[in-house]
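User: I've been trying to design a sequence by hand for this structure and keep getting stuck. Would you show me what you'd pick, starting by listing the structure so we're on the same page?

Assistant: Good idea, let's start from the same input. This is the structure you sent:
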């Protein structure tokens, strides 16, 4: 068992959010750099959704870690 489960939860939530937001940024950067397309300001409104998906991913990883390596969403 983890001695600090809440700290691990926060780390994994932050890591998941960072990975997803950074990935989204890199995809948008690549699209604008290589195609010349310009996005309007509504693209920025999508970042909270991406951050939420990353936090959900981090929570799933934490839950699997706390369950002893069993992924509760996929392993039955």
């Amino acid at each position: 068992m983890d001695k600090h489960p809440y700290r691990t939860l926060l780390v994994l939530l932050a890591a998941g959010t960072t990975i997803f937001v950074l990935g989204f940024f890199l995809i948008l950067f690549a699209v604008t750099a290589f195609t010349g397309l310009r996005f309007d300001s509504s693209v920025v409104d999508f970042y909270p959704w991406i951050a939420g998906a990353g936090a959900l991913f981090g929570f799933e990883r934490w839950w699997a870690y706390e369950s002893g390596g069993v992924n509760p969403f996929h392993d039955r």
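That's my pick for every position. To get oriented when you compare it with your attempt: The chain has one domain: 5-66. DSSP finds two helices and no strands in the chain.
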